[in-house]
């Protein structure tokens, strides 16, 4: 299985600047290169009984350079339900269909 990474950005109300930093770094690293065809960053708003939800960002295996730059942690492939695509091509959704979705 390819290695996914995730990063909890904390409170969604405060995560905007960090999300912008991730988007800029994605563009810096991948730009219009062929590597960008499968590199993707997904996000999920997660609330586990808290007043505010956290933003969790998932980096596809092909976005490992970005994940390392952001100090993300290795994780299992996320479940597609509840995810949004932050950066990457729409075809990146297929990455979730091919990985073992142990869920995260």
Descriptive overview:
This protein is α+β, with helices and mostly antiparallel strands and 104 residues long. It is 26% helix and 26% strand. It has a five-stranded antiparallel sheet. It is globular and about 40 Å long.
Give a quick precis of the structure.
By secondary structure, the protein is of the alpha+beta class. 26% of the residues lie in helices and 26% in strands. It has one domain (4-98).
Topology, please?
Layout: E1 4-11, H1 16-30, E2 41-46, E3 54-59, H2 64-69, E4 73-75, E5 84-87, H3 93-98
Antiparallel strand pairs: 1-3, 1-4, 2-3, 2-5
Count the beta strands: 5
Strand order of the largest sheet: 4-1-3-2-5
Average pLDDT score: 87
Coarse structural class: alpha+beta
Number of helices: 3
Number of domains: 1
- Our Rg estimate from Cα atoms comes to 13 Å
Instruction: Give the strand content.
Output: 25-35%
End-to-end separation:
15 Å
Please tell me what the overall shape is. globular
Helix fraction by DSSP (H/I, runs of at least 4) = 25-40%
Residue stretches low in confidence (pLDDT < 50, at least 5 long) are none
Give the tags.
104 residues; alpha+beta; 3 helices
């Amino acid at each position: 299985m390819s290695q996914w990474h995730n990063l909890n950005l904390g409170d969604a109300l405060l995560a905007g600047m960090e999300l912008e930093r991730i988007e800029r770094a994605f563009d810096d690293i991948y730009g219009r290169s062929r590597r960008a065809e499968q590199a993707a960053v997904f996000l999920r708003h997660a609330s586990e009984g808290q007043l505010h939800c956290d933003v969790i960002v998932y980096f596809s295996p092909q976005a490992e350079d970005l994940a390392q730059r952001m100090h993300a942690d290795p994780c299992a492939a996320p479940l597609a339900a509840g995810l949004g695509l932050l950066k990457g091509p729409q075809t990146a959704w297929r990455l979730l269909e091919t990985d073992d979705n142990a869920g995260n």
